[in-house]
Amino acid sequence: MPGTARHDREMAIQAKRNLSKTTDPVERLRLQCLARGSAGIKGLGRVFRIMDDDNSRTLDFKEFVKGLNDYAMMIDKEEAQEIFRIFDKDGSGTIDFDEFLVTLRPPMSKARKEIIMQAFRKLDKTGDGVITIEDLRGVYNAKHHPKYQNGDWTEDQVFRAFLDNFDSPYDKDGKPPEIYMLADTGNWWKESL
Fold first, then answer.
1. I want to staple 40 with a disulfide (CB 3.0 to 4.6 A). Which of 36, 47, 153, 168 is the partner?
2. What is the band of 31 on the pLDDT scale with cuts at 50, 70, 90?
3. What is the pLDDT of residues 122-142, one digit of tens each?
4. H or E element, residue 88
5. Does pTM surpass 0.90?
6. What is the DSSP-derived secondary structure letter of residue 142?
7. CA angle, 97 as apex, 91 and 100 as ends, to 5°?
8. Distance, CA of 132 to CA of 126 (rounded, Å)
9. Phi, psi angles (nearest 5°) of residue 74
């Protein structure tokens, strides 16, 4: 069995085991996702879009509960209300995509945070705590891309395709985000330029 498949299986088994031990409602939801293997976490963006019945790019409580039921999550209404309040960081009565993912994503290990910080520092050429387009131009080499090498795309087209990876699935405005890092936590966030 390949290492990733083995890791995925072990993660699912561990999540199922831990599910009976935890009382934290967000952790229970997280573990129910992880019990489905890595696809349980990878599919969260798709699940969010499925839950978003009115295509508002946010979830109200009714959509959230319906989505949990559709995804076969075993959560009662009171627990769902508590989870919703935790997810709704800004108190707007809705959950946006970032609130959803940031809250449900498992905490990063110290080692992983350090790797992310090293990558961030490498990308942040000016050292100002923000990764801008100019910073990325200084480190991304489009000349190694197959479509550039075979003459299909220019360097600018390759770079634009690279930047599109950072665009929000809900806000394809063509403006790449600035990426900020909280140095003490390893958490980062994006804002459109």
1. 36
2. confident
3. 888 888 888 888 888 888 899
4. none
5. no
6. G
7. 65
8. 9
9. -90, 85
Q: Is 40 exposed, middle or buried (0-12, 13-18, 19+ CB in 10 A)?
A: buried
Sign of CA dihedral 11, 15, 16, 18: positive
What is Dmax (Cα atoms) for the chain? 58
Report yes or no: 108 and 186 within 8 Å, Cβ to Cβ: yes
Side chain identity at residue 103, one-letter code: T
Q: Is the pLDDT of residue 180 over 60?
A: no
Q: Which among 165, 167, 159 has a CA at the least distance from the CA of 191?
A: 167
Span 57-65, average pLDDT = 88
Is the confidence at residue 71, as pLDDT, over 80?
no
Instruction: Of 117, 88, 92, 91, give the one whose Cα is nearest residue 103.
Output: 88
Quote the pLDDT of residue 183: 43
The whole-angstrom separation of Cα 190 and Cα 181 is: 9
Give, as one character, the DSSP assignment of residue 128.
S
Read off the tokens for 15.
């999540």
What's the number of CA atoms in the CB half-sphere (13 Å) around residue 127?
0
